[in-house]
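Issue: copy button drops trailing tokens. Both records pasted manually instead:
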Amino acid sequence: MHSIEADFWAELAEIHAESIGWIPLEEGVYLHVSDENSTEVLVVGVPQAGAAVLLVG
């Protein structure tokens, strides 16, 4: 995929994630805060092949 097209789709995905309350931290990494007073961290998602996953409890 051409770099400009890849950048376009990445930015579109980021805009969509932001519109539903997800905060982009870096490419492919998002944070969602549903309750700022919560004492728990819930990690959800499906890793892509070859991706590292960090679970925080």
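Record 2 (pasted manually too):
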Amino acid sequence: MKFLSSILFILFFFTIPVKSEEKKCAGMKKISKEFIKCSTVNIKEKTIEKASDLKKNTSNRTKKIKIKLSETKNKITNKLKKRD
């Protein structure tokens, strides 16, 4: 049950922002070339945007982890030097 609810949450979380900021293709027929082109452009733009956000967040987190690890390493080495 938790697995199913987590999947639904993830789907809900990622689809709502995409639908809220898309260009409106509502005035076109659903099977026309223009509608399909409009929809694909919306999907492409949002995919690129989400990927760049993910890349930025990932790089920021790795930088923070590196800084924390170096600080921890320095603390440990200082304690070991004081023992000698």
